[in-house]
Amino acid sequence: MTLGGAAKAAPPEGASGIGFEAVTVAYRGIAVLRDLTLTVEPGEILAIIGPSGCGKTTALRAAAGFVRPARGRIRIGQRDVTHLPPHARDLGMVVQNYALFPHMRVEENVAFGLRARRAAEGTVRERVRECLRMVGMSEFTGRYPRELSGGQQQRVAIARALAIRPIVLLLDEPLSALDAQIRRNMLEELAQLHRNLPELTVLYVTHDQTEALTLADRIAIMREGRLVSHGASRELYRSPPNRFTAEFLGRANLLPVRMESMEEGGRQARVRFGAFSLLAQAGAQLRLGAACLLCIRPHDLTLEPEGPAGNVVEAKVVSTLWQGDQLSITVDAQGTTVRLASTPHAEPPRPGDSLRLHFRPEAATLIADDDG
Amino acid sequence: MTASSATAKPSVAPALDLRALWIAAPLLVLAGCFFYPLSLIVAQAFTGDAGGFSLDTIRAVFASTLFREAILHTIGIALAASAGCLVLGFVLALVVSFVPFPGAALLARLIDTVIALPTFLVALAFTFLYGSAGILNMSLMAAFKLPLPPVDFLYSAWGVILAEVTVYTPFIMRPLLAAFSLIETAQIEVAASLGAGFWRILGQIILPAALPALLAGGSLCLLLTVNEFGIVLFIGAKGVVTLPLLVYDKAIQEFDYGTACVIALVNILLSVGLYFLYRFALGRLGGNRAGLV
Question: Which among A85, B24, B189, B190 has the fewest CB atoms less than 10 Å away?
Answer without folding.
Answer: B24
